[in-house]
Design a protein that fits this description.
Blueprint (H helix, E strand, L loop, with lengths): L10 E2 L4 E2 H25 L2 H8 L3 H9 L2 H21 L4 H4 L3 H16 L5 H20 L1
Antiparallel strand pairs: 1-2
Helix pairs in contact: 1-4, 1-6, 2-3, 6-7
Length: 141
C-alpha cells in the first residue's frame, strides 16, 4: 500500500538538498518553537513566579523541576536537538543554521496564537527580515 501523501520529491530544487533533510530541519525548528511555548507555560504558573520573586531558591528549583510543562518543554528541546544532529550530519552548518531563524517566526506566531502575546509592526517587520535572510542564505549556495 503506497501512501502518496508521504511521497516527497528527492530534492528541493532551489536549495539543492534532499527533501528529507529539509523536512528534518523544519521538524527540529518546529519542535524547538513548541518547546518554548511549553517552557513559558510552565514558568508562568503562579507558584513558580511567587517562589522566584521571594527568592526561595530551593523551592523554586523543586517547583520548576517537577512542573510537567517545564519537563515537557525540556524533553521537546532534547528531541529537537536529536533531530538537529541528523541535520548536521547531512548538510554544512553554515547552510543549516540560518533555518533556526524560522524558529523566531514560529515562536512569535505561537506566542500570539496560543498565549495572547501582542505583536507590533516592528516585531512583524523584524521577523520578515529574518525570513528574507533565511531565503537569501539558502539560495546563496
Amino acid at each position: 500500500m503506497r501512501l502518496d501523501f508521504l511521497h516527497f520529491p528527492k530534492q528541493i530544487g532551489f536549495m539543492n538538498i534532499a527533501a528529507s533533510t529539509f523536512i528534518l530541519i523544519l521538524v527540529s525548528v518546529g519542535m524547538s518553537a513548541v518547546a518554548q511555548v511549553l517552557l513559558k507555560t510552565g514558568m508562568s504558573k503562579g507558584e513558580i513566579g511567587l517562589s522566584l520573586a521571594q527568592q526561595h531558591w530551593t523551592s523554586s528549583v523543586m517547583l520548576v523541576a517537577t512542573n510537567p510543562w517545564v519537563i515537557g518543554g525540556l524533553v521537546m528541546y532534547f528531541l529537537s536537538a536529536a533531530v538537529w544532529l541528523l541535520v548536521l550530519a547531512r548538510v554544512q552548518l553554515s547552510f543549516a543554521y540560518p533555518f533556526v531563524g524560522i524558529g523566531f517566526i514560529l515562536t512569535m506566531f505561537l506566542g500570539w496564537w496560543l498565549m495572547g502575546d501582542s505583536i507590533g509592526v516592528q516585531r512583524v517587520a523584524g521577523t520578515v527580515l529574518i525570513a528574507a535572510g533565511v531565503v537569501l542564505i539558502a539560495r546563496g549556495g
